Amino acid sequence: MAEVWLAYDLKLQVDVALKAIRTERFPGEQGLELLRREVRAAREVLSPNVCRIFDLVDSDGLEFVSMEYIDGQTLLDALQARGPLSCRRRPASPPSFWPGWKPSTRRASSIGT
């Protein structure tokens, strides 16, 4: 969906990640709206498990997301090393970014029946 580059913010003097939609897959306004929606959603989450969004940058008609750079393994590298994650593999406790989450005593298959 997007490409991400390591960049250096000259004003802040820090490394940042710049993300841009692949325009060949999502041309025109469709791609820009996907990027903007992702930024809006990410700005609602405050968690150590989600990188911080700094800005939505417009340069020469292209929009980029300036975000926190986190040094480490990419998702692609992790998937290639470990294989796809199982749906059964889940955390023992809910992640901190699930505010208001409460465990249920009912199984998912019985909800709504």
How would you sum up this structure in a few lines?
With 113 residues, this protein is an alpha+beta fold. 21% of the residues lie in helices and 27% in strands.
Strand fraction equals: 25-35%
What sort of overall outline do the alpha carbons produce when their principal axes are compared? globular
User: Which runs of at least 5 residues are low in confidence (pLDDT < 50)?
Assistant: 104-113
Gyration radius, in Å: 18 Å
Which CATH-level-2 architecture of the domain at 2-68?
Answer: 2-Layer Sandwich
| SSE series | EEHEEH
The largest sheet, given as strand count, sense and whether it forms a barrel, is:
4 strands, antiparallel
CATH topology of the domain at 2-68: Phosphorylase Kinase, domain 1
Q: CATH H level of the domain at 2-68: which superfamily?
A: Phosphorylase Kinase, domain 1
